[in-house]
Please model this.
Amino acid sequence: MDGRMSLVEHWHDTYQKRPPTRVTWYRAHLETSLALLQSLELPLSSAIVDVGAGASTLIDDLLDQGFSKVTAVDLSASALAVIERRLGARGEGVRWCAQDVCDVSFEPGSIDLWHDRAAFHFQVEEADKARYRAALHSALRPGGYAIVSTFAPDGPQRCSGLPTERYTGPQLAEALGLTLVEAVLHVHDTPAGNHQRFMTALMTRP
Ligand SMILES: C[S@@+](CC[C@H](N)C(=O)[O-])C[C@H]1O[C@@H](n2cnc3c(N)ncnc32)[C@H](O)[C@@H]1O
Model:
């Protein structure tokens, strides 16, 4: 990233340069997240937030399953606009937050499931990790769940030109102050055919 560019500009630029299906993290569906979510058998009235939603299809899949209290957060308004356009009228009930997740005003303890695929791992400074952890702990109700995907210990050290952190399940649960339920290691094939090792953790807030 150019030193003069803000993170918002960086992500806006990223989504302007390529169609959403050509970014390295593109998947038609977030199968690992969906499988973990399904295992929870959450009521359809659950409040779910997708942190760093980008242009991904998780929001579409949640609405298809009948969840209606859904929030999409991303630094890039242009990425969220891709989802909004795709959903059309179906997306009318979605809360769209084009901002840093740490600045979103969630009602304290109002979120039942916090989802993040490949956003938290860009927090490499301790102060930024602490801000994210505080935002998560304020929003997530005690006993609520978090499904967070990061690069695995043998995954990439950078993504989209930015440095990333790599985690095991126990390391991520410790970093976020949550209790680990299950960690899944998996490989993501990028549109260019490269393989990236990911770790997805299902955690709960004590
Ligand atoms: C690698 S992309 C993943 C997008 C999506 N989760 C997916 O799986 O396709 C990371 C996304 O996180 C967003 N992001 C990074 N840091 C963020 C933050 N602090 N708050 C909100 N969004 C953030 C970026 O704008 C980007 O869209």
